[in-house]
Specification:
This protein is an alpha+beta fold. The protein is built from 5 helices and 5 strands, in the order ββαααβββαα. The radius of gyration is 41 Å and the shape is rod-shaped.
Length: 198
């Protein structure tokens, strides 16, 4: 059987005793290095923020999860329990740095996955809206331009079969050529929209 001082937890837990004024009387120094006689409330702003609460005589016990302590050469994330005993404070620091780091990494991965999912949904929605828009434009080109130009070309062909003088025939040929060119361009535009859609 392993001696308790050699266990996994022995280097993950630090016990600190201080008098009610904050003067440290004992520290196991397994996580952060503290000196006997040093004032707990001067060690870190976290402890300083509790000074009034711990010295007024009302609080018996406090617990704080996930406290980041950056003291001298130590930067750790601890769960902290403070218990007021008769005449002194007992503070336990539980080093959960690696645990909280893994939680942080897991939270980052989850956030990244959620952002990727949102990006996918937005891309899909954008693609659907783009498709609907291009189909609408394609239908409008077909109904409003291509069909009308086909009607004009058909009417011109009917006019060509009538008795026209030379000037009228030349004008009708010019109209037909321009209409045919516009018809071809409108079909090309419709095809371009279809290509953009695909």
């Amino acid at each position: 059987m392993t001696h308790p001082n050699n266990s996994y937890f022995s280097n993950k837990v630090q016990e600190i005793h201080a008098d009610l004024n904050g003067k440290i009387t004992q520290s196991s120094n397994t996580i952060i290095e503290l000196s006997v006689g040093q004032n707990l409330f001067d060690v870190h702003p976290f402890f300083e923020s509790l000074k009034d609460e711990l010295t007024d005589g009302s609080t018996n016990s406090l617990a704080f999860p996930c406290v980041q302590l950056d003291i001298i050469n130590s930067d750790v994330i601890c769960d902290i329990t403070i218990k007021k005993e008769i005449g002194f404070l007992a503070i336990l620091l539980f080093d959960y740095s690696s645990h909280y780091e893994h939680l942080h990494d897991a939270a980052q991965e989850k956030k990244k996955a959620m952002l990727n999912e949102q990006a996918y949904e937005l891309t899909t929605k954008y693609s659907e809206e783009k498709r609907a828009y291009f189909e609408y434009i394609q239908d409008r080109i077909d109904a409003k331009i291509v069909q009308k130009l086909q009607d004009i070309v058909s009417d011109i062909e009917k006019l060509q079969k009538t008795n026209l003088d030379e000037k009228q025939t030349a004008l009708l040929k010019k109209i037909k050529d321009n209409s045919t060119l516009l018809h071809q361009k409108s079909i090309q535009l419709k095809d371009d929209v279809r290509n953009d859609l695909n």
